[in-house]
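Students often ask why we bother encoding 3D structure as a string. The short answer is that it lets us treat folding as translation between two languages. Here is a chain of 218 residues written in the first language.
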Amino acid sequence: MFDLHTHSLLSDGELIPSELVRRAVVHGYEAVAITDHVDFTNVEHILKCLQKSELQANPNSEIEVIRGVEITHVPPEKIGALVKKATDLGAELVVVHGETIAEPVESGTNRAAVSNPAVNILAHPGLITEEEAERAKENGIYLEISSRKGHSLTNGHVAQVARNVGASVVLNSDLHSPDDFLTEEFGARILAGTGLDPDEVRKAMDVNPRKLLKELGR
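And here it is in the second language, the structure alphabet:
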């Protein structure tokens, strides 16, 4: 099991990073990315705290821990600058908070994210267009199928658009609390509910996360 989009109490999650990772181990996860919400005000603080946690440096760890960020509600024209700042500060994984229909995300956010090859995942992209999904494919950016309430309302649309253009998708929880951890069975049911076939489900849950981790040098 992989989850490349989670939140600790460094932003609006309920768990400190070490407990989040411990619970992921108990749930049988192979890898987890801590991707707290950032804008220009807190990106240094969050990445510094994750570096101090030393969760990535434990040679006896039973799980891969990835230090990431979720760029959230940043004006589209500023996203590129924050992506660069985050990577310069040591972010291994960059997620952009996409245009979910559950929040007033500024129009143009999806386009700014998929136009930047340094972005790894466009989270909950809402009513993403085929043109935007094509650009995500060209730039090697993964589109997220989300298990989170509200964000999941457009999962079927995201899956269909991704299939139409051949873009890659990954399943993430967007975890904020202990109750948000996924099981393989429930994750597979969420993906099947989008209309993906069994092979596409396997790719979203296993093949694509492994491919992304390899791209990160893991």
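Translate back mentally: Residues 198-215 form the longest helix (18 residues). Keep this in mind for the problem set.
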